[in-house]
Specification:
Strand order of the largest sheet: 2-4-5-6-7-8-9
Oligomer: single chain
Shape: extended
Radius of gyration: 38 Å
Number of helices: 10
Distance between the termini: 127 Å
Number of strands: 9
Largest sheet: 7 strands, mixed
């Protein structure tokens, strides 16, 4: 019995020379010679084969050693395999596939970014993950809900900085036994390592590179940098205001100070009830000492019409 058209359409595809050329070389490559096509393939650094209904990873030996980034998200891949030929690979995304087992990755000695989110991985051997990983995602896999999953990964991957879209904290690193430095130099080195992951040709500034690959990782970095800058500016403004207040007080003219002192004294004389008890007692005591030396004030004359009223 032959399969119908709908079944043939859903059958997984295989990675082929035609597929790679169609996604990465210009339209006129169809008329190129074999040598020209090979030369073009050897220049590919970022292999984009996402959403191609691919069922297995194969035929990547057609590419040269320049490949550093591979995008295979949202296909129908069931196994991680046949990546041995990509010895310069630093960035690999396999999100949105049908992978159940973590395997065949340890030989990728330069791999720093691995996205396995939205797969079917229930458990894994931590030894199957390269020690070079800086960013890793198992989001929306059954294994990510297991107890101590996060600390287990942090403990065994010393270079890891982000797991499942969340930055590792110093407290998490200390809790698994790492000695954490607070030096700014170390943070600068880590940021530089982060930036290297996204270094590439200008055309990589597309939504596929940032938004569609790993929950806006690049945008998160920019937001953290902006937030850090805003905090520094707020502190600088606060310190500037404090310095300005001190400067204005220290440069106040003597006449202004004298006027301020006189106004304060006159206010106390006009409203004695506003003075504190200690100031009133001190003033009363001084008045008793000077009473014998100061003649009493003459009585105030009142208008006869006021007394009649």
């Amino acid at each position: 019995m032959t399969s119908g058209p709908s079944e043939r359409e859903t059958r997984p595809s295989r990675i082929s020379l035609h597929m790679i050329v169609g996604r990465h070389l210009p339209p006129e490559a169809s008329s190129w010679s074999q040598d020209e096509i090979i030369e073009g393939l050897n220049k590919i650094t970022h292999l984009r084969l996402d959403r191609q209904n691919i069922g297995e990873i194969d035929n990547l030996e057609l590419l040269g050693k320049a490949v550093t980034n591979v995008y295979l998200q949202h296909n129908r891949i069931k196994r991680i395999e046949n990546l041995d030929c990509l010895q310069s690979l630093r960035f690999l995304t396999l999100s949105g596939n049908k992978i159940r087992t973590l395997e065949n990755l340890t030989h990728l000695s330069k791999l720093a970014f691995l996205d396995l989110s939205e797969n079917l991985i229930e458990d894994f051997d931590i030894e199957e993950l390269p020690q070079t990983l800086v960013i890793l995602s198992f989001q929306e896999n059954p294994c990510a809900s297991k107890q101590d999953y996060r600390l287990k990964i942090i403990r065994d991957l010393p270079k890891l900085r982000q797991l499942d879209g969340v930055e590792l904290t110093k407290e998490e690193k200390r809790s698994v036994g790492y000695i954490v430095s607070s030096d700014e130099d170390e943070e600068s080195e880590e940021e530089a390592e982060y930036d290297d992951l996204f270094a590439g040709p200008a055309e990589d500034a597309s939504p596929l590179t940032i938004k569609g690959v790993f929950k806006d990782v690049s945008s998160d970095i920019l937001l953290r940098s902006q937030s850090r800058l805003e905090e520094v500016l707020r502190e600088h403004k606060m310190h500037s205001n404090q310095i300005e207040e001190i400067r204005s007080e220290s440069t106040m003219p003597d006449t202004a100070r004298s006027l301020s002192s006189r106004l304060s004294s006159e206010s106390e004389m006009m409203y004695p009830e506003s003075r504190s008890p200690s100031s009133r007692s001190s003033s009363d005591h001084m008045g008793s000492r000077l009473g014998s030396q100061v003649s009493p004030l003459p009585p105030i004359q009142t208008d006869r019409r006021d007394s009649q009223l």
